[in-house]
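Each lists chain and fold; for instance:
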Amino acid sequence: MNIKITGSGSYIPNQIVTNLDFAKHQFLNEDGSAFNASNEVIAHKFKQITGIEERRYVDTNLVTSDIAYFAAQKAIDTANIDPETLDYIIFAHNFGNVKQGAIQADAVPSLAARVKQKLRIKNPKCVAYDILFGCPGWIEGVIQAQAFIKAGMAKKCLVIGAETLSRVVDIHDRDSMIYSDGAGATIVEATNEDGGILAHASATFATDEADYLFFGNSFNKNLDKDVRYIKMQGRKIYEFALNEVPKAMKDCLDKSGIPISEIKKVLIHQANEKMDEAIIHRFFKLHNQETPEGIMPMSIHKLGNSSVATVPTLYDLLVNGRIENQEIKKGDVIIFASVGAGMNINAMVYRV
C-alpha cells in the first residue's frame, strides 16, 4: 500500500491587484512616521526583492470557506471519488472566515465543517477539523492524513489550504503588498499504485521565533488600537528560513533514501522569490551540488503569497500544465517544503 495524491484542485480569485494599485496607499514606518520614499520606488524595490508583480483578492461576497469549497470540489472531481467515502476533511488556514469590512474572524463552526456542509456529505464518520500551522499548514495536513491512513483510521482524506489574507492586512504597512488570497485542495488516499509519500519532516521553533509573525496594530496610530493586522519581522524570518529550511529538507531527503540527483522539482512555499532561491541554493549546497536550472516552479509572480494555499495551488497548476516551461511526469520525485508562523517548518519527499 502506498499513499498518494490522487486528485487536486485550486481556486484563483478573479480580482487582479498589481503593484501599481498600491500607489494610493500611505505607507508608514512602524512608529507611524512617513516613509521616506515614493510609492513608485517602493513598488519597484518590492518587485526586485519578492518577484511579485500582481496578486489575487477574492470578491467581496466570498470568504475563506467558500473558496476552499471550490478547490475541494475540483479535487474530488479530479480524483473521481464519491465524497461520501471521505474519512477526514483537514482544513489548514490561519484566520478563519473574515467578511469584507469586518474586524472579527469567524471559525465556529470549523471551516472544515462548513466545507463538508457545502459538499453535502451526510456521512457522520467523515470527520472534519481545522489546523493552524502557519503557511506550512497544507503540507502538515497531508502528513496527518498519511498518519491516519497508515494507522488504519482512514483510506481517503481531503486536505485543503485556503486563506483570504487581503482581509487582515494593514494598508499602511509595505508588507501588505506580499499577501494574497487563494485555495488549494487535494485528495490523499491509499493506493496500490507505485510512488506516493516517501518521507516527511516537521519542526516548531517557538523560543524567540514564535513572535516573528504575529497580530499587531496598524502603523497608522490614528486607527483603532483594538483592531489587529498580520505583521512580520521580515529580516528575522528571512534569516531563520535560510538557516533552517534547507536542513529540514535535507533531513527529509536523507530519510527517504533518494539521492538528490533524482529530485526533479522543489515545490516551496511561495513567500518571497529571493528567499526561496536562496533556500534552494543552500539546500543543494548542503549536498555539494549546483542548483539545477528550472528546479523551482514559481507562481508568486502573478499570485502573490496566499499562505497555506501557495503549495497546493502550485502543485495543481503544475500537474495541469499551467506553469510555463515546467512539468512533472509520473515517476518523478519532488520535494514539498514550507516555513511560516510558529515558526513552523516542514518538508515532504514524494514520488508522482
